[in-house]
Amino acid sequence: MSALEKTPETTAESRTPLMTLAGVSQVFDTKAGPIRAVDNIDLSVNPGEVLCLVGESGSGKTTAARMAAGLARPTDGKVEFAGNDIWSMNRSDFGRFRRGVQYVHQDPYASLNPTRTILQTITAPLLKHRVVKGNKAAADKAAELLTKVDLTPPENYLPKFPHQLSGGQRQRVSVARALTLDPKLIIADESTSMLDVSIRISVLAMLGRLRDDLGVGFLFITHDLAIAKYFGWNGKTAVMYLGRIVEFGPTPKIINAPTHPYTRALIDAIPEPDPDLTKTKGRESLRSLEIPSLAHLPSGCSFHPRCPLFEDGLCDGEVPQLVEIRPGQSAACHVVARDGAGEVRPDEPVA
Amino acid sequence: MVTTTPSGKTSTATARAVRGGEGKPLLSIRDFKVEYRTGGGATVQAVRGVDLDLYPGESLALVGESGCGKTTFGLGLLRLLPRLGHASGKVIFNRGDGTEIDILGLDGRDLREFRWRDAAMVFQGAMNAFNPVLKIRAHMHDTMRAHTKATRQEIEDRAGELLRLVRLEPERVMDCYPHELSGGMRQRVLIAMSLLLEPEVLILDEPTTALDILTQRSIVDVLHEVRERLGFSMIFISHDLSLAAELADRVATMYAGRLVETGGVRDLFYRPRHPYTLGLIKAVPPIVGDLPDLESIPGGPPSLAALPKGCTFNPRCKFATDECREAEPDLLPVTDEPGSAHDVACIHWKDVHLDREVPNQDLGTAS
Questions:
Q1: For residue B19, is pLDDT > 50?
Q2: In chain B, what percentage of residues exceed pLDDT 90?
Q3: Terminus of chain A with fewer CB atoms < 10 Å: N or C?
Q4: Ranges for the ABC transporter domain (chain A) (predicted)?
Q5: pLDDT > 90: what percent of chain A?
Q6: For testing contact with chain B, the best of A61, A107, A151, A198 (most B CBs within 10 A)
Q7: DSSP tag of A266
């Protein structure tokens, strides 16, 4: 995994990333003043790679994903698909981009049309975009897609309506629909968070197979680091906090050797499915539980009012930039940038 | 860098003993059933005969997938079922003074008195549990005035004390409307309110679901702390096994309206003997360490209107044999773990083993 050792810049040179967000910001004008939902972030996804975007609610994950999908126009910065700025594309190129990037939503109860059968849901894009000709060919293709998402035998599912399916099955249909146009990148926005634990893993395994077999890239958004770890182990993870990326690196390093105090706090806060381990897990206490409002961001590092490493005069001055702390792993923290991340915590193996 | 929380997390972890089997149970549930009328004279049984004892000071986790009857069970215990639901069986609550009350036989005044004073519930959607046009202060006063003869000042003091216990500043919170608080703050206010009348039993239905990780952590810490301080018993309903590992002394796995396994938290997590519990544990990704081997349970929970014959888990179970399709197994003690209070409803329990490494073998069983 030599690619993991490189910084995003050098990877970008070796091959054209599928999707790049370069210095992208999204500012919403509200009565309470401008809200910087996403503030100057850089991200890139290579073909067949997984990029996990993790963070709490309000951190700007979904806004970033909407910009990547071309559903929202960034107020600043560039969104590039295969090296071309999507907002200066001509109509046909933009259409190609739209077909190449598909979105799988969080709620499979809301994202499927309740009046359409599964067959109609899946064949609609096939016929509209003339992927296949004729109803017969479309139905065959739909059956093939359902097989790919493990809904077998497909004949049992095609005539059904969404309400006749379970949450996990519906989410599989959403994925099958996303696959109709042979996408290069799937944006999965909390796609498994509404599913039961027992089903979640099988949906993730199915997505993992698509990634490996079809070479689809993933922008995988989740608030659950354990899920990011499971799905994005061979990829990279970016941790977002209040619209900024605070840590970026290969997933195993983010999970097992986090450097930014926010990432550390997140990982420490997660209970383990193991009674002894979870009760002895070391926990750093945060200085405050309250998440600052996006409309009134704290000066300097926006994590400083909660950060256990806070130093007066350093952290509340300037906004920290993402700098490389360990090879391939960067964090936006003044203290960590100055002192280094210390040794890797002994109980956690370096991947 | 690693510091303990103000409560001294490490010491509480060892102090919290499992009290299974000790003294008289606080809540004794026998053959508890809940039926819903589904129209046309038809009914479905959502809870199908649960026997369970809750001992003083104990924390019991009820785990299972959605649709297994966990919430119905919790609502049924407090007689909060919707009109179409009907609970039967026996639920005996043991008041501290030696009097026993049959919860299912209560009505009117007695029922109101039982709720909140003896047992309180914290619901999942914290926003829906409040009246949106009343301030937190009004909620506190309403509750106290409906149940006690406390004076204004007493109510203020008691509310302030509990809010501080859940790490909120009373001055800031009391004059807020529910929508002005964040999700985590609302959940903590709700916990404080549920403790106003010092109930013996607290039922929490998915207390941290839909909250962010750090907020979830603060709720868990608050629960540890208030339980330590006030010593109530707790039944918490969760689909999150990690949370059960963190908060429970005893765990009960529920499937299709019945308990299929109960036991001390360490017994259940390290030596699950029901294929369903085993499946649930294997489906949860841990956060530390390398990439784990995970497995999902094929299929989903059965429809309560059309339960499979025999053991209800048999269509999804890889241990299933023809025998499993004949009769539903009873919840029976696991006999090869002496000294443990571990029950399982599976005829193949001897073959069910978690093949993951047990980290601390020398600690022995929890009970």
A1: no
A2: 49
A3: N
A4: 19-267
A5: 56
A6: A198
A7: H
For residue B249, the one-letter residue type is D
Which of A198, A274, A342 is opposite residue B296, by nearest beta carbon? A198
Query: What pLDDT, on a 0 to 100 scale, did the predictor assign at position B270?
Result: 92
Name the one residue in this structure whose structure tokens are 């549990």.
B129
Confidence of residue A56 (pLDDT cuts 50, 70, 90): confident
B287 touches chain A (CB under 8 A): yes
Contact A272 B288 (CB under 8 A): yes
Rounded to whole angstroms, the Cα distance separating B41 from A316 reads 67
Contact check, Cβ <8 Å, B269/A285: no
Q: How far is CA A233 from the centre of its chain?
A: 13
pLDDT digits (tens, 9 = 90+) for B114-157: 888 889 998 877 678 899 999 999 999 999 998 888 999 999 99
Per-window interface: A 282-341 vs B, CB < 8 A: 282-286, 289-291, 308
CA-based nearest residue in chain B for residue A194:
B210
Considering the domain architecture, whether residues A149 and A290 belong to the same structural domain is answered as no
Confidence band for B357, pLDDT divided at 50, 70 and 90 = low
When pLDDT is cut at 50, 70 and 90, the band that residue A282 belongs to is low
Is residue B349 packed enough to be buried (19+ CB in 10 Å), middle (13-18) or exposed (0-12)? buried
Check whether residue A134 and residue A213 sit in a common domain. Answer: yes
For B289, which residue in chain A has the nearest alpha carbon?
A: A348
Measured CA distances, A86 to A69, A78, A157 (Å): 10, 8, 36
Q: What dihedral do alpha carbons B177, B180, B183, B185 form, nearest 10°? A: -70
State yes or no: pLDDT of A10 exceeds 60.
no
Most confident of A211-225, B205-219, B352-366: A211-225
Cα–Cα distance, B90 to B270 (Å, whole number): 32
**β-pair type (B100-102, B119-122):** unpaired
Domain membership flag for residue B81: yes
How many Cβ atoms from other residues are within 10 Å of residue A287's Cβ?
12
Same domain? A130 vs A228: yes
Beta bridge partners of A330: A248, A324
Q: Residue B119 is part of a domain; what is its CATH number?
A: 3.40.50.300
Average pLDDT over residues B150-173: 91
Task: Verify that A237 and A275 share a domain, yes or no.
Answer: no
Residue from the list A233, A267, A275 with its beta carbon closest to the beta carbon of B245:
A275
Structure tokens at B110: 């007695």
User: Nearest Cα to B49, choosing from B36, B29, B31, B35?
Assistant: B31
CA distance linking residue B27 with residue B252, whole number of Å: 15
**Residue B38's pLDDT band (boundaries 50, 70, 90)?**
confident
Q: How many domains does chain A have?
A: 2
* One domain for residues A170 and A298: no
